[in-house]
Amino acid sequence: MAPATSTIKLTIEQRELSGLFYDEAYDHPGESLKKICKRVLRQTSFPKTPNGHRFEQEVRRAYDLARPSAPRKSVTIGAANRKGRQEREVSPSGKIMRPQSFIILGVSHRVQGDEDFRDAFDDPTYRDIVKEIISGERIDFVGEEAAIKTTHAERIAQNLLGTGHYLNVDPVLEEDKEKYGIGETCLPCPLTGAPVYGWVVAENEKRERIWVDLLIKRTVARGLLICGFYHTFSVAAKLLGMGFEVEARTYLPLEK
Fold first, then answer.
1. Are residues 19 and 56 in the same domain?
2. 11, 161, 214, 236: which could form a disulfide with 169 (CB 3.0–4.6 Å)?
3. How many distinct structural domains can be found in the chain?
4. Residue 131: its H or E element
5. Is residue 256 part of a domain?
6. Do the beta carbons of residue 46 and residue 59 sit within 8 Å?
7. Residue 230 lies in a domain
8. Across the strands, what pairs with 223?
């Protein structure tokens, strides 16, 4: 689950754990936060890390939102739906397909809602596309390659699906990059000559595998991943190679 505001900086593991707390509280409404904490964290107290207090605030917010008295959205991610993942479908060719399916939407980072990104601009068309995909494709989880700040997709997912259905899947914090062993992913453009950038394939491969793993883990039936358009086909190919049904789409407002 994504942070409530852009000021709460959580690691990718903490963001995922916040979502798990929501799931557990929703599936077990009679359990205390302490009991859920013991099951999820294997301890009854929150770890004392530099941002431990922020993490605890976010978890408590997720726990409160999952209480029976909290407003409900139309899509839930409870235990019954998870059991449905065991079903298998067979393609016309006879190949066994995994039950989940995915849409990869490759976009320009300029439209995602981070005003600090170079040449970023407000694009209502992009927001409409995200809303249409989530609503029309029965999406139950949205993953995104994003920076720290809250994005348009996060707000839309929160509004349409409720808490626990969105996650920034990219390891953006330095401690995340160190944990996963991710180095520089893009080489700077030469000072002279054509604007040709170099992309470090091995490091971007590490990032994409993290995205795919989290997308599969958090999706019940149909998931959406929003990422930079350069990653569209390589991410889709990873999912296809694992036996999932996947669609690749791009939105590049070049005229804007």
1. yes
2. 214
3. 2
4. helix 124-136
5. no
6. yes
7. yes
8. 102, 141
Q: Within a 13 Å sphere around the CA of 167, how many CA atoms are in the beta-carbon half? A: 30
Angle at which helix 52-65 crosses helix 12-27, to 10 degrees, equals 30
Residue in the block written with tokens 């929003």: 226
Residue that the structure tokens 């958090």 belong to: 218
* All residues at 6 or more sequence positions from 245 whose CB lies less than 8 Å from its CB, including other chains: 97, 98, 101, 102
Phi, psi dihedrals of residue 247, rounded to the nearest 5° = -115, 145
CA 115 to CA 124: how far, in whole Å? 14
Does this model's pTM top 0.70? My answer is no
In a domain, 79, yes or no: no
As a whole number of angstroms, the distance between CA 216 and CA 239 comes to 9
CA–CA distance from 88 to each of 21, 214, 237 (Å)?
28, 21, 20
Indicate if 17 and 122 belong to the same structural domain.
no
Q: State the residue for tokens 């989290």.
A: 214
Q: Which of 43, 28, 131 is nearest to 79 (CA)?
A: 28
* 114 and 136 assigned to the same domain: yes
- Tell me the per-residue pLDDT of 161-211, one tens digit each, with 9 for 90 and over: 998 899 999 987 778 788 878 888 877 777 667 777 788 898 989 999 999
Q: Do residues 146 and 186 share a domain?
A: yes
